[in-house]
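Q: Could you fold this chain for me?
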Amino acid sequence: MLLASSIRGMTVDSASMGDMLAAAVPMVRTLNLEFVEVAPERAVLRLPDQPEFHNHVGGPHAGAMFTLAESASGAIVLTAFGDQLSRAVPLAVRAEIAYTKLAMGPVTATAVLGRPVSEVVAELDAGARPEFPVAITIHREDGAVTGEMTVVWTLRLNG
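A: Sure. Below is the predicted structure, expressed as structure tokens.
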């Protein structure tokens, strides 16, 4: 796995996580997602205002906002569990999104890990396939929340 070999055993900053995900996940490149902040507890990504990704009312398309939020959740998962990638692969299990207000202009997604890393790793150590939520809030530049998403992830042991 390209990304796993890139991140394994290293501390990842926002720029390097953005570069790695852009190399491994073509949609990150396609949408020109910007990595504002990436840490094990929180990730912030930005979708610039791009007319080619607008919907019928001139704001970011719902699919682009979904990809922004899912990518923010992936960034936090890879950062939080990067040291586990030699034995497990992170996979999105399910996602739910609510579009709550009209989004116009650039939008930002803030992802927060829903369980302590140590708790998830303890389940993995016990041979289980842990599941954990990542909550994401999407907002406009004026701070108004335009969407909320939850992605449930798992770490699947290799082999």
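A (continued): The chain has a mean pLDDT of 90.
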